[in-house]
Amino acid sequence: MDILQKIFQAGVVGAGGAGFPTHIKFNGVAEYLLVNAVECEPLLETDKFLIRHKSKEIIKTLEILARQMKAKKIIIGLKKKNTREFRALSQAIEALNSRAELHLIDNFYPAGDEQILVYELTNRQIPPGGIPKDVGVVVCNVGTVVNVYEALNEKSVTDKFITILGEVQNPSVLYAPIGTSIEACIEMAGGATIEDYNIILGGPMMGGVIEKSQLNEAVVTKTTGAVILLPQNHVIFKNKQQDLVQMINRSRSACIQCSLCTDLCPRNLIGHPLRPHRIMRTLSIDRQQYEVLKEALLCCECGVCELYACPMGLSPKTINGEIKNLLRKEGVKYSNLPMQKEVHEMREYRKVPAERLLCRLDLAGYSDKINEDYITIEPQSVKIPLRQHIGKAATSIVEVGDVVEKGQLIASVNEGDLGANIHASIKGMIKEVNGFIWIEAGEKVVME
Ligand code: SF4
Ligand code: SF4
């Protein structure tokens, strides 16, 4: 079996973000192989933990992937402040005589946005609406590289390292089987410290929000990076309580067209024709400018405009997200947009300092509290979603009553599909197949 087949069989997808299937990403050639090791979102610790504990596995795998892609350079993007991780990677590079280079960058947000990272590490501008391969680059993150290492050693993606923090007794890194309930994760972290909390799955800027009342529906997936518990009245949740009409009405009455949202927009600063203040103006008073709304397709929803820049507390990011959904339903593509401009001359001075962002979000009190050791969860049951990422859902190949071993293939896609196989994350009996596969460990399960 070749490398890509092993990655496909093991069901590897991007360990963060949209979860793009990895066997497709690494199919073809690229000049640069870049590794996103900057841990983009504030508070998260998972990637740094992996670097400290699996640096040799990471470097070894990067060499294999670079050979596969005929990449001339391997560059790992890391923040200057992360000195322990720098040491771990440097030692691994030396021990393995690797050609991987470490590129240190400032502690700004969103350093890990793919388009921003490519510019920082290579000085190449991805065209608006383009992908890294357009400029000869493939980007992967640390968690994905670790999963590829496991895949090359015949181990499927069955578990996930995640950070759990915020209002929990013991902020920690957890090692949880895919499909573990978020409730079980909270229990393993010692439980919540407050009664009225909501949950962010992912980072505080871009993660999805789960209300406490929906807790029983949420599980760990292949793309879950973090679980953050915050008080229900926290500033991060305020926009979630408004619908689109309310947001537009507020913009109409309160947007002062100061253009700070555009001035600090990271995509605008690297030369993309994205102007959130123009989108806000168009929605509020100038609805004939349909072309301007298409700029929303270039928005990565980093949240800088909404949670950092806007002095009026408006919601350009959330509005852009809604516009993107509507335009995609209409089949509108990025390609209709004008070409990019030069990188903004003030870009260096307009980067958002991550420390300042933490204070602005009232999250500084939750940083640097993670225990060094990780906790392994062994749940009694898991509910593994058949759709966990971008692309096609997997099709179940098991039935209720089947007994499965950990690591056994339970749902599959065809090799050419934009999708990924799914494997049992615990040993047990199939209880239900219904958009997810429910496996119950139970003491009575006997393997034949
Ligand atoms: S920063 Fe806020 S007030 Fe200023 S233009 Fe943007 S949305 Fe309007
Ligand atoms: S969320 Fe706002 S700041 Fe971020 S890319 Fe979109 S428009 Fe720009």
From TrEMBL:
Superkingdom per UniProt: Bacteria
Q: Which GO terms describe its cellular component?
A: membrane
> Matching Gene3D superfamilies, A to Z?
3.10.20.600, Alpha-helical ferredoxin (1.10.1060.10), NADH-ubiquinone oxidoreductase 51kDa subunit (3.40.50.11540)
Per the record, the coiled-coil ranges are: none
Q: Which residues form the 4Fe-4S ferredoxin-type domain?
A: 244-275
Q: Which UniProt keywords apply?
A: 4Fe-4S, Electron transport, Iron, Iron-sulfur, Metal-binding, Repeat, Transport
Sorted alphabetically, which PROSITE patterns does this protein's record hold?
4FE4S_FER_1, 4FE4S_FER_2
One Pfam match: Fer4_17
Listed InterPro entries: 4Fe4S_Fe-S-bd (IPR017896), 4Fe4S_Fe_S_CS (IPR017900), Helical_ferredxn (IPR009051), Ion_transpt_RnfC/RsxC (IPR010208), Nuo51_FMN-bd (IPR011538), Nuo51_FMN-bd_sf (IPR037225), PduS (IPR017054), RnfC_N (IPR026902)
Which Gene Ontology molecular function entries are recorded, alphabetically?
A: 4 iron, 4 sulfur cluster binding; electron transfer activity; metal ion binding
- Tell whether Cell membrane is among the UniProt keywords: no
Q: What is this protein called?
A: Na+-translocating ferredoxin:NAD+ oxidoreductase RNF, RnfC subunit
Q: Which organism is it from?
A: Anaerovirgula multivorans
Lineage start: Bacteria, Bacillati, Bacillota, Clostridia, Peptostreptococcales
